[in-house]
Amino acid sequence: MISKQSLIVAKWEFLRFFKWKQQLISYLLMMAVMAAVALWSYFTDESREVYRIAVPAEFSISNTEQFQFQRPSIALSEQLAQLKAGESWHGVVTLSTATADKQTVVLHTLASKKWQQQLETELNSYFSQQYAAKLQLTPAQLAELQQPITLEFSYLDENFKGKDTPEKMIALGVLILLFIGLSTAFGQVLLSITGEKQQRVTEQLYAIVTPQQWMDGKVLGHSLSAMKAMITSALVMLLVFIVVSVVVRDNGVNLSWVNWGVLAWLVPFALLGVLLSACFMGAIAASIDDPNTSGKGAVMMITWLPMLFTYLVIDSPTGTAMTVLSWLPLTSFAAMPVKMAMVELPWWQPLLSLLLLLVAVWWMRRLAGRIFLRGMQMYGKEPSWGQIVGWALSNKAE
Amino acid sequence: MQLIVTAISKDYGDIAAVRQVSFQINSGDIFALLGPNGAGKSSIIRMLVGMTRPDSGSILVSHQHEHYDHVPRRLLGYLPEDRGLYPDKSIEKNLLYLAQLHGLSKQKALQEMAHWLEVFELTDRRQEDLKQLSKGNQQKVQLIAAVLHQPALVILDEPFSGLDPINQEKVVGFLKALKARGMTVILSAHQMAMVEKLADHMLLMAQGKAILAGTLADIQQQAGPQRQMVLSCAGPVTAEQLQQWLPELEIELLNSNRFALKLTATQSVSGTLKQLVNQLELTQVEMQTADLHQLYLMAMAQHQLREQA
To answer: Most exposed among A57, A288, A337, B184, judged by the fewest C-beta atoms under 10 Å?
Structure first.
């Protein structure tokens, strides 16, 4: 199915953009940045400190683990002077009466800090209790008043797994990974094919391998690069999750929310999707004579549309739009894994979708090979869109 | 390998790139395609390679009792006119890649590479990136890339371009080595002195047409017996005097006592000398035949005159 020459071209293309040292350095840098963020949040964690707050003498607020409330007998101006000098207090609370029936609490501090939000919660709670006492409410009545209502969603479609669930997060992750993969392929395919044309390697290669072998090798090599980018990005995402869970949140690693079945299906869909897109990009790049003057390069971005369309309908995974996208071979590589992450599907649906996608990849690679050959025979002239469509519809391979 | 090309023509839109060109190349020959830019040499080469097909006419390639309508890739070594390799890769990586695409094992490729790098004195630079080499050295790497897999036929489009005279001589030696290995070579070139040393057969083209073909001797004969007599005399002589004594001859005064006379088929050496001995004391007489460069220029001039007529 794929010739030895194509595999040699694929290996060459894959390794051409694979720089061990740079790759390693970028991973180390990424890990260093993550470690720095984790250490920074650990050492700047304000919740572990105790803050002293000066409050008016009539405040009966109780101390908490984080806040010690003190009632100094000195004048406010002196309290503020000590606050400014960094002595005695982290904050000074005063009361001002703006209107006859409304009091405003003022917190004097040196600058805005995260702990002040926690203090605001404590003060709110204190004043709620004060108002409740004034209204002669019992603590139970107050608790009932403060109890928010709970709105539960009940979905009648038994296959739907729910919104804003880990499944949706996985679906979004799938789209992000595909976007990363296709962006990698986009840059490499354009650079590789037009670069070879400009470096005058193409005609020499034509005398050695057929246009189809050459295009197959290119597409495979860059698709593998894209898959590598997706896998490493997924690993980095996982690493971030682990670091956040263990270091920042101080929890253990819990991966029970990961749907491994969907991830297993994602691999063939992603591979075929990237191959399909790389074939399309290869076809367009092969029709470009000079990337500096050609406007055709932007057309390669069409390959990002499947992810965009899928994102737009992600909240309706059982809707008509998602169903169409998940069957259409040009979009199914993005839509079907997302749909699978959010609803239960019978096994034959992803399988059939995958087979249709495979046929599309086969057709697209033949098209890319034809366009490369015909484009090369034009010697310095760029084919028109009409010519490209004509070649796409013709069946002549070489 | 034998090639028989019969009346091939190729148009690109309104431009007739090749018109009714025929020639034959025998196994082990060095065949030169000559002609000015735009004569149709590269168009013929691209048809032989199979990149394009002739609009009419036929190409018959015969090798070991097999016949093809263009040169099969596995039998072909090709140096295109528009050429280049991967500048950010080393000589060795570039050559290994192309050799492996040709089907060579790594070991065999390294062995062949070592031989040709030695020939071109590039052994010590094999790990250098191509972009670090001079244009001439890059050209040598391209030549090596075309022959590493020992093809039956090597097609070299302008192999001498961009090379200094010393390296041009090296390429002549390289081409002779290919011939000695039994390879058939087709080359296009403008460097007539190089072609004259190498080519068994040649085809001179202009505006897509073949205007002269054959061995150097055949071409000299087709162009007409062009002879030149260079004479030296004891005393000074002027162009006016010579024109007066020999009104029917084309004369070129080389210096005050040395001049050249171009003889046509009807003008004899002895008759010309008889006309001169009474006028001058001749000290040296030298006969020259037209070289390929002169024949080329003359043939092109004649072709232009015919086209204008």
So the answer is: A57
Cβ-Cβ contacts under 8 Å, B84 against chain A: 199-201, 204
Asked, for residue A156, whether it belongs to a domain, the answer is no
Say whether A204 and B78 touch across the interface (CB within 8 A): yes
The pLDDT of residue A355 is 96
On whether both A270 and A329 belong to a single domain, the answer is yes
Question: In the β-sheet with B76-79, what is the strand arrangement from edge to edge?
Answer: B76-79, B153-157, B184-189, B30-34, B201-206, B209-214
**Tens-place pLDDT, residues B83-122:** 788 988 999 999 999 999 999 999 999 999 999 999 999 9
The C-alpha of B79 sits at a distance from chain A's nearest C-alpha, in angstroms, of: 7
Among B76, B84, B102, beta carbon nearest to A200: B84
Q: Which of A328, A330, A334 lies closest to A352, judged by CA?
A: A328
pLDDT of A330-373, one tens digit each?
A: 999 999 988 888 888 898 999 999 999 999 999 999 989 888 88
Supply the angle between the helices A332-342 and A348-376 in degrees, to the nearest 10. 160
* A332: containing domain: 4-36+162-393
Show which of A119, A146, A173 is a domain's final residue: A146
Q: Which residues of A touch B83 (CB under 8 A)?
A: 200, 203-204
C-alpha torsion sign, points B156, B162, B165, B167:
negative
CATH number of B227-289: 3.30.70.1560
Q: Number of CB pairs < 8 Å for A and B?
A: 53
Nearest CA in chain B to A381: B12
Within 13 Å, how many C-alpha atoms sit on residue B13's CB side? 4
Residues in chain B with CB shorter than 8 Å from the CB of A204 are 78-80, 83-85, 98, 142, 145
> Which residues in chain A have Cβ-Cβ distances shorter than 8 Å to B79?
204
How many Å is the maximal CA-CA distance in chain B?
76
Number of structural domains found in chain A: 2
- Which candidate, B146, B191, B160, places its Cα nearest to that of B296? B191
Chain centre to alpha carbon of residue A243: 17
Q: Tell me: do A108 and A13 sit in the same domain.
A: no
Q: Residue A163: what pLDDT?
A: 63
Q: How many CA atoms does the CB half-sphere of B168 hold within 13 Å? A: 16
Chain B contact present for A206, CB below 8 A: yes
Burial class of A110 by CB neighbour count within 10 A (0 to 12, 13 to 18, 19+): exposed
Contact across the interface for B85 and A207, Cβ inside 8 Å: no
Same structural domain, A331 and A389: yes
Query: Distance between CA atoms of B215 and B213, rounded to whole angstroms?
Result: 7
Phi-psi region of B214 (alpha: psi -120 to 50; beta: other; left: phi over 0): left
CB contact under 8 A, B101 and A201: no
Locate A120 and state its tokens.
């605001």
Interface contact flag, B101 A205, Cβ < 8 Å = yes
